[in-house]
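Quick one: structure for this chain?
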Amino acid sequence: MPFALLLAAALSFGPEDARAAYRAAGGFMEKCPVRDAGTPGTLAASYWILDEASRTGADARRDVFRADTPKGMRTFVNVCAEYRFDSDAEWVVLVSHYDTKPGCPGANDGASTTALLIAIADALGRWHGWRCNIMLLWTDGEECMEMYSDDDGLWGSRRAVETISARGLKIRAVVCFDMLGDRDLGMTIPKNATPELVKIALAAAKEAGAEVKKVPEVVKDDHVPFLAAGYKAIDIIDFDYGSESGGRGYWHTAEDTMDKISEESLLCAGKLVVEMLKILLR
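Got it. Here's what it folds into:
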């Protein structure tokens, strides 16, 4: 077996990683209970993420920027953690937003995949076998304040596109993850995704023993600005989040709490992420 494939096989995500992700989600919510987009709450949360990402050995930093919103000028903060293989190599970008709607704890919608990316950072920090550059990106301002438009919502991902373009980075793939801690996990791929990455996600799901379905809906999430800029991008999301099958009763409400997410769901999602990375890093 080629040496590169042996290295790829060493990257894994197991029950201990899922347990760490679940604990991190709880700790994040306890220390940063208010994370409304573009508010002092997300400023504080960005430092928490920065500290967690930095300890994995990544080159981590905050990107503070201002943007006009329906509620006036706001300050937003993205957090980026990079694992560089070679300055000329391509990049795989993994994205999760960490902000919330006002009054929503955001255990699933924000904290779950924020913590999942931290657990992935831990796995990458142990591995050191990547063969391209990897960027983990935690975005502020994914949630809109009134209605998604060019001037409302997705501020962090739009900023990331501008930054990546200005740096001239060669992007192999952008993979966005959202709401994947749901106890009743149902991972889906929206219609608006790069077909090549859809095939990779479905192949990775098979390897991970996970179920991922394609759905006909178009979803506005942090992958959209990347698609608009011509990058290959995909969103993996569980949009059914409620007490009834197919419902969304917990979404964007005060009911989005830690008892609604589970280690088992984070394990399933984490395995999918790792299997996608193995394919993308070949």
